[in-house]
Amino acid sequence: MAEPLDVIFDTDPGKDDAFALFLALAASDRLNVLALTTAAGNLGLETTTAAARRIVEAAGRSDIPVYSGCPAPLLSTHEPIPHFHGADGLGGSGLPQMARRPQAGHAVTKLIELIDKASAPLTLAAIAPLTNLAVALTMRPDLAAKLARLVIMGGARAAGNITDHAEFNIHVDPHAAQIVLAASAPTVLVPLDVTRPTLPEPHWFDGLAGFGVPGRALARMWRERAMPLHDVIVTAYLLWPDLFALERCRVEVDVDDQETRGRTRIEACADGPIDVVADIDRKRLYENIVSTLSVYR
Ligand code: RIB
Ligand code: CA
Fold this sequence. Notes:
Elements: E1 5-11, H1 15-26, E2 31-38, H2 45-58, E3 66-68, H3 82-85, H4 107-117, E4 123-127, H5 131-139, E5 149-153, H6 168-172, H7 174-181, E6 187-190, H8 192-195, H9 202-208, H10 212-224, H11 232-239, E7 244-253, E8 264-268, E9 274-280, H12 282-293
Parallel strand pairs: 1-2, 1-4, 2-3, 4-5, 5-6, 6-9
Antiparallel strand pairs: 7-8, 7-9
This protein binds alpha-D-ribofuranose and calcium ion.
């Protein structure tokens, strides 16, 4: 059995973030989650940070540090989306609220510190707007080459989800996305085109309700308001890369035009710097997710 991957999740919980994190924490034999760093995205930073702490607590992993990051995008104004995720980011989960004790250390400085001191190259799972990563890579451009892999949920080949053109994570902070995608880290992009169709039948979630506190929380959240498993696909890629078809691409981000801000222009080319997910074996994906989450029974 290979050594577990050392991974940091940059996250803005968010219901699908919660699902992605519960799945990652269930697979502790294959993923060693070193820390969570939180961003402003689905909700404001204080809310996403509190939600991240509630998630690690619910998974029985309050040993995992949660570091709060940048409170706003680099240049854009932040527009949270509580109508999708609930005012606390985990709408309907029933997870206990927590004292919002801040964790010492800013996410950006902690990202740099953890990457620097890692005995083996770290994997970064970016399931939020990319502000924290952009600041870290601007402060220390050399970090890009120190990463084993950077896996990002974001962008879209075709229509967006927050505007006609843009996917949410990129739309919130397109300047950060431009910086991160140009940083030449070994990057895999998981775009909306492959995540939007991952919305299993409602009864599939009923099966999850038997998987302890995390399973019950997921079933409740999806019963309250179902949504595609966007961020879950990043965790799935880390766990089961053989389910994925990748394509070498060049990826550009629109930052100036207010109407198309956050649009990603994804062009396949053999010498492209970014691996973009082109397809997933969804049947095996759902099977693998259920068997992995059953550890919470
Ligand atoms: O477009 C989907 C992405 O935006 C996901 O990361 C979801 O959590 C929201 O942040
Ligand atoms: Ca997210």
